[in-house]
Amino acid sequence: MNINESFPSKFLKASDLKGQTVAVTISHVGIEEVGEEQKPVLYFKDKPKGLVLNKTNGMVIADRFGPETDGWADAEIELYPTKTPFQGQMVACLRVQLPAPPPPPPADAADDSEPPF
Q: Between β-strands 51-52 and 37-44, what pairing exists: parallel, antiparallel or unpaired?
């Protein structure tokens, strides 16, 4: 028996990714009660579970797509499992990263003309 499967959750947790980085497309952000607090939850297209946003992950997304969460729909991000210090121990967590931008087109090696400046 996998102990992580014994504690199901409607929200994503690090063990759900099984050690892999997963590319997702944001559907929307909602506010939900988590524990006894209202927190933002990030939802993804074609995925059943949402990610409860912490400040670190929220700011990574806001840095690229702006602070208004309504503008995040259709944005592509990646989720990956890692560890973070919490109350003196290292605990599993999920982090957000942005996909690498596409590489620039190769420079034309045949162009030996003088630069325009």
A: antiparallel
pLDDT in tens, 12-32: 999 999 999 999 999 999 999
Q: Which residue has the tokens 């957000």?
A: 96
Report DSSP letters for 15-30, one per residue: GGGTT--EEEEEEEEE
Inter-residue contact 69 to 48 (CB < 8 Å) = no
| CB of 51 closer than 8 Å to CB of 61 | no
* pTM for this predicted structure: 0.80
Cβ-defined contacts of 85-92 (< 8 Å, 24+): 92/13, 92/14, 92/15
Maximal C-alpha separation, the chain: 68
Of 80, 69, 27, nearest to 50 by C-alpha is 27
